[in-house]
Amino acid sequence: MTQYAFGSGTLIAKRTDVTGQPPALLGTLDTVSIDFDRKIETLLGQYNMAVAAGGGEFKIAGKAKFARLQATQINNLFLGQTLAANSMLEMTTGESDAVASGAVTVANSASFVEDYGVFYASSGAQLSPVASSPVQGQYSVSSGVYSFNTADNGAAVVIYYSYNISSGNKISLANQLAGPLPMFEIALKESFNYYGTAKDLVVKLNACVSPKLSLPFANQKFTVAEFDFQAIADASNNIGTISLSE
Predict the structure, then answer these.
(1) Mean pLDDT of the chain
(2) What values do phi and psi take at 155, rounded to 5?
(3) Most buried of the four, 96, 160, 181, 246, by CB within 10 Å?
(4) Phi-psi region of 237 (alpha: psi -120 to 50; beta: other; left: phi over 0)
């Protein structure tokens, strides 16, 4: 019976150059495409139409757009860096406080990391950071304690800063040597029920690398990651398989 494919299907990638890493489900999959590209070399001789053709470079490359974001997925398929569980750098998007006795202790002072600016809540004017002894309109900070001039007592301020939390995941980006990069296999499944008969298409690529990962952020839009991958031959000189019900 005739087979069709409909929808984006299911796409899973699994890192293969290291062991013990969880497979990455590229969830909330928007689109995925796999392109097969062969370079054709032709022999012309003295004629204007080729008399022979041979296959040159063969390339299988793909692109996927997905919305479910995971640290293990980003690290294992593209970055290949050090991932720490139960550790995350967090930041405020503006903590509201009021200056009292020339100081403010921010809510996350115990795990404070870095100051990102202070603004007056009423006017939006930004205060200037100084090392110590601030005058009005200035502040200094140490270990999550913001010091102000007493002339700013009672002023409502909005404070931006970063801090550590003991949850989530953190990828530490180091400057790595050129050459090695994460290797993974790709499995794509497309299913469509046609007049009561399930028809499946499954593509398996044994060894892939990724040249590009994009995380586009836009106002009033979901971030849909764009992930490119390219297949190469595995250690046994095999590329993969294509399976169809029909």
Answers:
(1) 96
(2) -70, 135
(3) 160
(4) left
Supply the pLDDT for residue 1. 74
DSSP for 161-230, please give it.
Answer: EEEEESSSEEEE---PPSS----EEEEEEEEEEETTEEEEEEEEEEEEEEEEEE----TTS---EEEEEE
Q: Cα separation of 151 and 26, whole Å?
A: 54
Residue type at 122? S
| Stretch 88-117: mean pLDDT | 97
Residue 206 identity: N
**Percent helix, strand and coil across the chain, each rounded to 5?**
5, 55, 40
- Find out whether 147 and 102 touch, Cβ atoms under 8 Å: yes
Structural tokens at position 28: 């909330």
Residue type for 162, please?
Answer: S
Residue 1 CB contacts under 8 Å (≥ 6 apart), including other chains? 194, 195, 197, 199, 246
